[in-house]
Design brief:
Beta-glucosidase; beta-glucosidase activity; GH; 2 domains; TIM Barrel; 989 residues; hydrolase; 33 helices; elongated; alpha/beta; single chain; 8-stranded parallel beta barrel; GH_1_N_CS
Length: 989
């Protein structure tokens, strides 16, 4: 997801990281709404690790020089001031709260050289003046100030072990140090930092806080510690370690260091005067933590006998990162993931330090720079730790915010560019430092925007059973993964370059009111096809299923070829071939030329057979040398019903009482007549292709059907017979003639003379007139027997079928209504998408015309449909030419529901293949957002978002685009889990 997707919800924290961690935590279940509305979720960086430009615009070594002259004080550097003002203004402009840290371990080298930096109390005044500049210049826009980042760790790393700048230490405590005293300097540094912090807080509260209304506090590094054993010695040692590490907070709350520190350190620990104690005590509005891991502690009394001791030895304890690890003094070198430790720490602060306001200012997970985009380990880590914060809050801890470390990959202080903590990948080999979102960025965005709840840890996973795990490699190498569009919904340019109206143009522009959105531009594929095919290639599509506009190629529906239309489709096909993408072309996708409708009634007249064959001949002749997969027509079973029974599609023919808002038509006979002509036209085109073109071009040709798996609602014989009847009327209507040469027996019986018949010649031509069958599959449904309509004299196809189709809980929809809704005649803003494959049989139907709310993820219907085609029709080669999930147009980039849906349905496809079904390909509907036929621009099926309010029709990848690319192109593994005891499926990536 692009960085803009984190706007409004993410706060920026400018600071630094020390230690890393790994592994798994405990469990909880939560959403963003479980946190208070004013709880802040953010991410962070620090200046030295993020900014670069270390010698530009007056910057001297370290951050202070951005503001001041070379000596670290005095006049402000105008360019440094301008940079931070610009940064702050841009953050405010985006609606993001600022949490700014004044010091992140990088004071000016000039002050270190002049008087030893934090070892000298002269730094108190210099830091105070620096802070004054920040408050004065930025405080009108910065609401949260942190004076210091993790001074407890910084003092040890810089002045005890020598691992951090300025690299001071003494033997035998540190490494590679030329100067320093590890026994005293860490304590002196912390003491001066506390006094400096108190002076800065006093300055802010006296001079700025009243007018600016901000908060100010200090950050400390925290580890939770467990006793290695249940011995009293280890328990006491654990408390000592906590007092030493978190002891920096005791002066802030109580005015002095912990008693154990004063006892063990003695005269090496500086003391506060009465005035200093009063100044330091209470000098915070909040405490912030950098927390990553936990550690185990064991008692080490031998250190008490040492004359020469540093901070670690003063604790009289040893630590280890894991139970089976060798103990050592100082922070653990190996980190475990222990979200319970963070909960414990937050509750410890609540109980010991009077429940201060707390921000988690750093928490994150480091990985190497390889395979850094697919950071599922980081996602698990973050969600477990966020869950632990919620648990602590429910137990009374006063936590106000959480920041991931880090927003983007940074220069890590000890590892350089060799480790990666960011939500966004940064290519450090690229001078432009390109940013690319990792999966964790998408996940964090989804959580913050409350897209879905988060279930974490072992308990949440225990209720799910992994039923399938797969990758692209589990499919045959010649299996084709693609995505699709259709001409009318994608191209736009309705009146450009010789194109004439289709029946959809006429219906929208002539018959409907002005409130209906118009497809003049649609997705502007007529002008942006090159850009889109480039995106297809980047995504990793192996095939692209699209349709040709009959009225763009043949302006009059027959006769002369429109050369500009011909050039457009040649360009599209050439561009696809250039990028190694297979063109899968549909000749007819519901958009018959209006001129043929006006002339003789379109599909109601057998005259259309020759016109369709003539149009197909042009396509085969002009494009067949590069197109090896032809589909004659899309969804003729829907087309016949929706166009000629209920009038939901153009030409909107129907008759009372079966349709609505129709001026003419006959719902009892026209659907059958139209379908009959479609089958004959299809057969004629297949014969043409096989006779004239296939021997040379070596392509395949087939037809596409809309498929819904229909199960009996009960185990009754009536419902079972009704479901079989419904399958014969929906699938068998076309498959039986194509395989056996005639309509199903039940159709001939129930429809009688209203159903046309095939001559012997026609039967032979239709039978086997396919090399493959394409199906568009979205959902399953339950069927209830309703034989009463069969007793009436006036019947349409819905009445001929007999059953009612129970599409969902709270809805039963007649077949005539079903096919209208299939093409999105639903209010997506209210998530009223057809509920496909209802999970519950128990809730009673209420109204046959109420559209269900959503599509439940029940992919077993597809598995059953593919088996049904295999068993009933001789296992024909199958391409799944459409399968997808519709959402509203708001928050469409974070389409985790779509990912889960696609993952499960692709998994069902693989299961069907393993069970013997001859499935050859799978195509997502749709590659990008389109003009949906009945919903216009109000619904979104695409892998790529199209901004329809922008005339440029900008494309932006959704999370599903990244996921599909990861699966098809990069071989990521998909796990399908089933909730135990329920028909609910989940995808794990």
């Amino acid at each position: 997801m692009a960085a803009s997707s984190l706007r409004q919800s993410v706060s920026l924290l400018l600071y630094f990281l020390l230690l890393i961690l790994s592994q798994k935590g405990f469990c909880t279940k939560y959403t963003r709404e479980d946190f208070p509305s004013d709880f802040v979720f953010g991410a962070g960086t620090s200046a030295y690790q993020y900014e670069g430009a270390v010698a530009e615009d007056g910057r001297k070594p370290s951050i202070w020089d951005i503001f001041t002259h070379e000596d670290g004080r005095g006049a402000i550097n105008p360019k440094g001031l301008e940079y931070y003002n610009n940064l702050i203004n841009e953050i405010v402009k985006q609606g993001i709260k600022l949490h700014v840290t004044l010091y992140h371990g990088d004071h000016p080298q000039s002050l270190q050289d002049e008087y030893g930096g934090w070892l000298n109390n002269r730094i108190v005044e210099d830091f105070k003046e620096y802070a004054n500049v920040c408050f004065r210049e930025f405080g009108d826009r910065v609401s949260h100030w942190t004076t210091f980042a993790q001074p407890n760790i910084m003092s040890m790393g810089g002045y005890d072990y020598g691992t951090f700048a300025p690299g001071r230490c003494s033997y035998p405590f540190g490494v590679n140090c030329n100067v320093g005293n590890s026994t005293t300097e860490p304590y002196i540094v912390v003491h001066n930092i506390l006094l400096t912090h108190a002076q800065v807080v006093k300055l802010y509260k006296n001079t700025y806080q009243t007018n600016q209304g901000g908060w100010i506090g200090m950050n400390v590094y925290s580890l939770w510690y467990y006793p290695l054993s249940d011995s009293l010695a280890d328990i006491e040692a654990t408390q000592r370690v906590k007092d030493f590490l978190m002891g920096i907070l005791e002066p802030l709350v109580f005015g002095d260091y912990p008693e154990i520190m004063k006892k063990n350190v003695g005269s090496r620990l500086p003391s506060f005067t009465q005035q200093q104690s009063e100044l330091v005590k209470g000098s915070f509005d909040f405490i912030s933590l950098n927390h990553y891991t936990s550690s185990y502690v064991t008692d080490n009394p031998n250190n008490s006998y040492l004359v020469l001791r540093d901070f670690s030895k003063d604790m009289f304890a040893k630590t280890r990162g894991f139970l089976n690890e060798t103990t050592s003094e100082g922070p653990p070198t190996h980190m475990l993931s222990d979200p319970l430790g963070l909960q414990n720490m937050l509750e410890y602060l609540k109980d010991k330090f009077a429940n201060p306001a707390v921000y988690i200012e750093e928490n994150g997970y480091g990985l190497g720079v390889i395979k850094t985009l697919h950071d599922t380990d980081r996602i698990e880590y973050l969600r477990d730790y966020i869950g632990s914060i919620l648990n602590a809050m429910r137990n009374g801890a006063n936590v106000r915010g959480y920041f991931v470390w880090s927003l983007v990959d940074l220069f890590e202080l000890l590892a350089g560019y060799k480790s990666s903590y960011g939500l966004y990948y940064v290519d450090f080999d690229d001078e432009k430092r390109k940013r690319v979102p990792k999966l964790s960025a998408h996940w964090y965005n989804n959580f913050i925007k409350n897209i879905e709840g988060i279930a974490v840890g072992e308990k949440s996973l225990a209720s799910h059973e992994t039923i399938l795990e797969y990758s692209r490699d589990d499919f045959p190498s010649d299996f084709v993964f693609g995505a699709g569009t259709s001409a009318f919904q994608y191209e736009g340019a309705l009146a450009e370059d010789g194109r004439t109206p289709s029946i959809w143009d006429y219906s929208i522009y002539e018959e409907q009111n002005s409130e209906v959105t118009k497809p003049d531009i649609a997705s502007d594929g007529y002008h942006k096809y090159k850009e889109d095919i480039e995106l297809m290639s980047m995504t990793g599509l192996e095939g692209y299923r699209f349709s040709i506009s009959w009225s763009r190629l043949l302006s009059s529906g027959r006769g002369a070829v429109n050369q500009k239309g011909l050039a457009y489709y040649n360009n599209v096909i050439n561009e696809l071939v250039k990028h190694g993408i297979q063109p899968h072309v549909s000749l007819h996708h519901l958009d018959l030329p209006q001129v043929l409708q006006d002339e003789y009634g379109g599909w109601l007249s057998p005259r259309i057979i020759d016109d369709f064959k003539g149009y197909a001949n042009v396509c085969f002749r002009e494009f067949g040398d590069r197109v090896f997969h032809w589909t004659t027509m899309a969804e003729p079973n829907i087309n016949a019903i929706a166009s000629f029974d209920n009038g939901g599609f153009p030409p909107r023919r129907c008759s009372y009482p079966f349709g609505y808002n129709c001026r003419e038509g006959n719902s009892t006979v026209e659907p059958y007549a139209a379908a009959h002509n479609m089958l004959l036209a299809h057969a004629a085109v297949v014969k043409l292709y096989r006779t004239r073109y296939q021997p040379i071009q070596k392509g395949k040709i087939g037809i596409n059907l809309y498929a819904v798996w229909l199960s009996p609602l009960t185990n009754s014989i009536k419902d079972s017979i009704a479901s079989k009847r419904a399958m014969d009327f929906t699938i068998g209507w076309f498959m039986s003639p194509l395989v056996f040469g005639d309509y199903p027996e039940i159709m001939r019986k129930n429809a009688g003379s209203r159903l046309p018949t095939f001559s012997e010649t026609e039967s032979q031509e239709v039978m086997s007139a396919f090399d493959f069958i394409g199906i568009n599959y979205y959902f399953a449904s339950f069927v209830i027997d309703n034989s009463d309509p069969l007793k009436t004299g006036l019947r349409d196809i819905n009445a001929d079928i007999g059953p009612l189709d129970s599409l969902a809980s709270h809805s039963v929809i007649k077949f005539s209504s079903l096919y209208t809704y299939v093409f999105n005649n639903i209010d997506y803003e209210k998530k009223a998408l057809i509920e496909a494959g209802a999970d519950s049989k128990d809730e009673p139907p209420i109204d046959q015309f109420i559209p269900p709310r959503y599509i439940p993820n029940n992919p077993t219907g597809l598995l059953k449909m593919l088996k049904y085609l295999k068993d009933s029709y001789g296992n024909p080669p199958i391409y799944i030419q459409e399968n997808g999930y519709g959402l509203g147009v708001k928050d469409v980039l974070n389409d985790t529901d779509r990912i889960s849906f696609l993952s499960c349905y692709i998994g069902s496809t693989l299961e069907a293949i393993r069970n013997g079904s001859d499935v050859r390909g799978y195509s997502v509907w749709s590659f990008l957002d389109l003009y949906e036929l009945l919903e216009g621009y109000k619904s979104s099926f695409g892998l790529y978002h199209v901004n329809f309010e922008d005339n440029e029709r900008q494309r932006v990848p959704k999370l599903s685009a990244y996921w599909y690319s990861s699966f098809v192109k990069h071989g990521s593994v998909i796990k399908i889990e089933k909730t135990q005891g329920e028909e609910e499926y989940h995808a794990m990536h």
